[in-house]
Structure formats: C-alpha cells, structure tokens
Amino acid sequence: MPSNLLSAFTLDSITDALSQEGLVLDVTSYRCRIRSDLAAALAKPLLLLYQDYPAYLEHSGFIDFDIELNSKRTGWLEKNVEFSWDGQTPFPALPLNQVHPLFEWGLNWCISTLAGEDIVIHAAVLERNGGALVLPGDPGSGKSTLSAELCLSGWRLLSDELTIISPITGQVRPMPRPISLKDASIGIIQSRFPDATITTPIGDTRKGAIAYVRPPVAAIHRWSDEVPIRHVIFPRYSAASPLDSFVLTKARMLSKLLDNTFNIGVFGTSGFAALAEAVVDSIGYEVKYGDLSEVAGWIDTTCR
Amino acid sequence: MDRYDMPVSRLPTILGNPTGISRISGEQWNAILLHSRKTQSLGQLASRLDSAGFLNEVPPAVLRHLNLARTTAQRRADAARWEIDVIRRAIHPGTPVILLKGCAYLVANDPNADGRLFSDIDILVPRASLGKAEAALTAAGWMPSTVDAYDQHYYRDWSHEVPPMEHVRRHTVVDLHHAINPPISRYSIPTESLLEHLEEIAPGIHILGSADRVIHCAIHLLQEGEASKVFRDLYDLFLLIETNYPKGTKRDELYARAESLGLRRLVSAAINAAEVVFQTETTSSPSTWLAKILIAVASGSSPQTGNSYSIQISRFALLAQSHWMKMPLGILIPHLLRKTLLAFIPNRDPS
Questions:
Q1: First and final CA of chain B: distance in angstroms?
Q2: Closest-CA distance of chain A to residue B75, Å
Q3: Per-position DSSP letters for B108-134, written without gaps between them
Q4: Fewer CB in 10 Å around end: N or C, chain B?
Q5: What pLDDT score was predicted for residue B3?
Q6: CA dist list (Å): B169 to A67, A267, B146
Q7: Are strands B97-99 and B205-207 parallel, antiparallel or unpaired?
Q8: A-B C-beta contacts closer than 8 Å
Q9: A31 contacts in B (CB within 8 Å)?
C-alpha cells in the first residue's frame, strides 16, 4: 500500500476520512485508525501537527490502535466527546472543544498501556551527540516546556511525555509526538520561538489552557534511531527561584525513575533489572529553576 | 459501534486448531484481537500459538500485542502464587486448602493457565473448617465485604461461598467456598464426595480430582449464566478435555463420575458445546438444546455477530437455566422478584 505524508491530503479529504472509513496514521511503529463524528474540529489540528507522519485515507490491514472520538449526550442539553479504543472507554467524556487534546491523551494511554514489551516512563526525553537526556516530572515541573525549548534549539525530540525503553537493548525508542504546552508556557515558547508552529490554545481543559507544538521534521524522520541514556534530570520549576542543582546517587535516581514508570509492575524483577541496566552509566540530577533560558543553558553545558 | 466490513473472527477456529496462521490477513487479525480482548483470551491465544509452534508465523505487529497479554498474565500468575502461599500459611495446617478454577490451573501447570488472566483466588475448605478459615483469612488481612442483611443471608444460607473477601492492603480478593455449587441447588454436589478424590500438589495444597475438575468447569459455566464469560469458560473446558480426556480414552470414567453425581446430562451438553465451538474433528453438531444455547451465546461474544435476536434469546435462556440450577423455585421466585424490584429504585441506600 503506497504511503503518503498527511500533508499530501487536503483538509476536506482528511475530514471525510475521519467521519467515514477512518484516517490511518503511522505514529512511529504504531498504526492508528481514527474515526470521529467531530471530524471537522479534529482534522485541522491533526493536519497541522501530524503533517509529516505517514498517513492513509484508504487502508486495509492490521491496526494497532483503533480509536474513536464520538460525541455523546451527557444531559438534556449537554453533549460531550468520548474516547474509545476497541470499544473500551478509559476516560470520562470531555467538552466537545477538547476533542483534539482528548485524542492526544487517549493515544498516550494506548501507547503506555499497550506498548508491547517496552518499559514506559512518564518523562520527556531528548537526544544530543548520541546520548539521551530523560526529564521525568510531575505536571507543573516544566518538563514539556523544557522539551519544547530544547528541541527548538538543537536537541532532537524523542518524546515530551513517554520515555520508552527497550528492555532488550536498554535504549530509548523515540516516540516523537506534538508537545503539549500549558497556560503561561504557551506564551513563553511563542515569544522565544516565533517561527514554531503552535495550535490555537484551548482554554479550561482539566489541565488549564493547552496548546500543541508541531514537532521538528527531523525528529519525526528519525523515530527508529534508538539512543542510550546518558543523563536523567528531575526538573522542578519554582517561580523566581535561582538555579540550584545537585547530583543524585544512582540508587536514588533509579528509585525516582521507578516512581514515574507506568508499567514496571508488568515486567516484575526482569523489568527492574533492565531499567537499572539502562541507567547504570547515566548521571542523575535534581534541578530547581525559575528561568527557562538559564536552565536550558545549564543543561547545554552539563549534558555533553 | 460501527465495525464496517470487519471479517468474522476466526478466534474459535484458531484456538481449537491453530494452523494456517500465515494465511490470516491483517483485517482478520483486527477481528481476532478485538474478539479475544473482549473475551479476555488474548494471552491464551498467544500461549496456544506458541505451544503449537506457530508463533513465528504471526506478523511482528500482532505479536507485540500477544506478547504483552501473555507477559501480563504471567506476572499476575506470579502474584497469585505468592498469595496462595500466604493463604496456605494463614489457614490451620490441618485444614486442606483446595484451589479451584484459575488457581488450580496454575498450580497444576495445566495448558489452561498459560496466558490466562484471572483476578479472584477461589479456594474450597471442608464445611466444618469454614468458620475457622474465614477467621484466619480475616486475621491475615482479607476483610469480608460489607453486604446488606439480605445478601448476607443469601450467601450464608443458600450459597456455596462466603461473601468475597478483599485484602486491606493488596486488594486481592479471595472467594472462600465450602462447596462448588449451592447446597440448595437441585444439582447439589456433596463436598465430602469431592474430598475423596483430591490431588495434593504441594504440602497442604490440593486440587480436585481430574474428573471433578472437568465437572466443576462444566457446572460453573452453566450456573454462572454470564454470557460475557461463556466463551472463555468453554475454552477452559475444551482444554481440560483435550489434555485429560481426549476422545476414546477415559471419557467413560468421566461420564460415570458425572452420572454418579446426577450431572451426566449437564456435563455432556457443556462438553459437546465446547467441542462444537472449538471445532474438533470428532464432533460435528450440537446434540441437545442446552448445548445449542451455549454455542449461540459463545458465538455472540464475537463483535461481528454481537446482538442478533436469537443470540439475545439464548442469553436469556442460559440465565434462566442458571437460576433454575441454583435454587428451588420456592426460593428462586421471591429472590428474582426482589432483585428486579430493587433495580427500579435508584441510588438505594446500601444499608
């Protein structure tokens, strides 16, 4: 079956596909079919953000994730959108204008719960000079903002949300996807990188205002280049705080990573050993910061 | 939910006789995976293909999903083994602990266990030891569920198990039985008779005798009456039969045992249905109305055949049959009336 990039198709044909047979997108090694009765609202951000991904408007063959985003009556006058995968609905329905964020969250869920035999950590991850930098962090730690900053200034984006580690090679498997920015971060990245492609912010999601950055083309093309981990940084954003960093012991770094792992329970002892092996040669830091360019500069000099 | 032109799932055929894997199209794999996820049998599909030596014919993209399901099941099995050990140490060493269903497959190393997901730990103890075993499990952290007075009465007086016990920290659930079907059932199986045929797998850990395990599996799937589980229950039965009673071997012993318990008709109908659904060469057609109902309900587990009128009728018939098996009419009718009426009262205070 010949594949095209999504940018080869018109907005109208993508909308038609979404509302009928489904739009098929290859997101790294995962083939997703997306169908929605809110096709018009979904097609626009998908075309903007996924234009460099292989896509099919007609497809027959195996699908990893068969995804539907359909509106659902939730009250007398109220309609919400619901995410479903193979007939399962893992999340509560959300207001209709959040159909695209819901797709991104749903796909994250599919990948982190069904990603085959890889270890999945809730962390951003980037690459420079053949080494990966893992940035785990709770919401608000600034990991997405940091990954947008770094990938727009020379680092290769591997993922802003899911660090996928092969237990066999111990290396990171890139999962380049649109980067989600929240609230104040949207304006900061817009002003620092006026050329970056960013979607129109959607207000009042459960995570505040949210917008997505289109990933750099080179990051998408190199999705199959695996990278060994060299650095693990636990960022902690604190307004107006001066930069403060310290090195973590290997044991502490591993235990903090385990706290951020989605699926380590599935792999038991062998998963623990594989993760330990994957980070044995890395250096771990905890970094508190209040200024984005300052911490980016520190990372540039520290992680060589 | 629209499934467009998805082909009818070949899951039962592959589970029954895994050949010709390389000829399965991508579209067919979509249907097979959807069906096996819906019936919680994806890990077992992986195991079946592996033991038949065909895993290498599965496309890599599909294999990734199969492997994850199997790994997940293996990890749950490890956890269950650990819980079994804790349970054995909690209960007085003089009391035999008899494992049932998923746990029994696991400790007996049956082909059923590989890739099979199960959540509750089902154990059987002699009726005389029930109170002590319940107290011992409570002391070890498994708290009896809080059920209302009626449900408490239902479990204590009519049922073959105490209300499910959930561990306060690990949230594992133990179903503690004193019989394998309700003592008030018209097909009540005396536990004493089962105790005479136990197999000891590890010190103090037992499973039922091989004929009794087949009989329990058959009776379980009929008396649960849950359409969503019939497919997998029939597959369990199919594997037990395939492993322990292939046609022409000790089938007569099995049926003699079922006869002595007054269950011959039910057990043969269930076995007949299992062999038709999973299409073994020796059986071709359903022999009784009960087998026909089971087959129709099992075929309704496929997302493509989902909800035809005849399948809905069969589901109802199976549910009716299950209630008929469990309770005498004098208890059954008031019980169903109560459940039906309560279903119309929204947000009933559980106390």
A1: 38
A2: 6
A3: TT-GGGTT----SEEEE--GGGHHHHH
A4: C
A5: 44
A6: 35, 21, 17
A7: parallel
A8: 54
A9: 61
Which contacts of A83-87 are long-range, i.e. CB under 8 A and separated by 24 or more positions? Answer: A84/B1, A85/A109, A85/A110, A86/B33, A86/B34, A86/B37, A86/B38, A87/B1, A87/B34, A87/B38, A87/B303
pTM: 0.87
Alpha carbons B323 and B149: distance in angstroms, whole number: 21
DSSP H or E stretch at residue B266? helix B264-277
Q: Could you give the ipTM of this predicted complex? A: 0.88
| A117/B64 CB distance under 8 A | yes
Contact residues for B234 (Cβ-Cβ < 8 A; gap 6+): B221, B270, B273, B274, B277, B278, B294, B298
Point out the residue among A21, A87, A266 whose CB comes nearest to the CB of B72. Answer: A266
Task: Name A289's Cβ contacts closer than 8 Å, sequence gap at least 6.
Answer: A142, A235, A236, A237, A238, A241, A243, A244, A295, A298
Interface contact flag, A84 B75, Cβ < 8 Å:
no
CB contact under 8 A, A265 and B67: no
For residue B6, pLDDT over 70 is answered with: no
For residue B309, count CB atoms less than 10 angstroms from its CB and return exposed for 0-12, middle for 13-18, buried for 19 or more: exposed
Q: B29, B30, B40: best mutation site toward chain A, by most A Cβ within 10 Å? A: B30
In chain B, residues 287-346 whose CB comes closer than 8 Å to chain A: 303
| Contact check, Cβ <8 Å, A86/B25 | no
Phi/psi region, residue A108 (left: phi>0; alpha: psi -120 to 50; beta: rest), is alpha
User: Min CA distance, B73 vs chain A (Å)?
Assistant: 9
Which of B38, B62, B71 shows the shortest C-beta gap to A62?
Answer: B62
Instruction: Report the C-alpha gap between B120 and B171 in whole angstroms.
Output: 10
One-letter identity of residue A257: L
Query: What are the Cα distances from residue A31, in Å, to A26, A67, A68, A176, B15?
Result: 5, 11, 14, 14, 26
Query: Could you give the C-alpha distances from A112 to A120, A210, B32, B69, in angstroms and in order?
Result: 6, 21, 22, 14
Tokens 């408490």 -> residue:
B152
- Residues of chain A positioned with their CB less than 8 A from the CB of B68: 114-117, 266
* CA trace torsion A217, A219, A220, A221 (10° rounding): 90
pLDDT, one tens digit per residue, over B289-330 is: 888 888 888 887 777 665 677 777 777 777 777 777 776 666
B76 to chain A, any CB pair closer than 8 A? The answer is no
For A88, list phi and psi in degrees, rounded to 5.
-95, 145
Q: What is the DSSP letter of B161?
A: B
Residue B5 has pLDDT above 70, yes or no: no
